[in-house]
Design a protein that fits this description.
Elements: H1 2-6, H2 8-17, H3 23-28, H4 41-53, H5 57-70, H6 76-93
Length: 97
């Protein structure tokens, strides 16, 4: 999956060099969706946990299953379409759409 996210050259560099990425570089590469200052980490975790627990257990379970079980055995476009549908259904269940 890494070459799909960062490109083949960067994936090879990261895998062969075994160097660690800092938070900013991981963000720049699109491997994380946000970088949180240390002082805000605990409160942001609590916010994320509240957001997840406020959603339907079935919707969250379906999203997790889709992502974890099927992200590696599908073509990227097929996986992204499925992920999009799952997330849309989760938002509908939560009353956000």
């Amino acid at each position: 999956m890494l070459p799909r996210f960062v490109g083949e050259g960067k994936a090879i560099d990261l895998l062969f060099s075994r160097r660690s990425l800092g938070a900013s570089e991981a963000f720049d590469l699109g491997l994380v969706h946000s970088v949180i200052p240390d002082d805000d980490f605990e409160s942001r975790c609590e916010e994320a946990a509240s957001w997840i627990t406020a959603r339907s257990g079935a919707a969250v379970s379906n999203a997790r299953r889709n992502h974890l079980l099927h992200s590696y055995d599908r073509e990227l476009a097929t996986y992204l379409d499925s992920e999009n549908g799952t997330l849309c259904r989760a938002m509908e269940v939560s009353g956000k759409i």
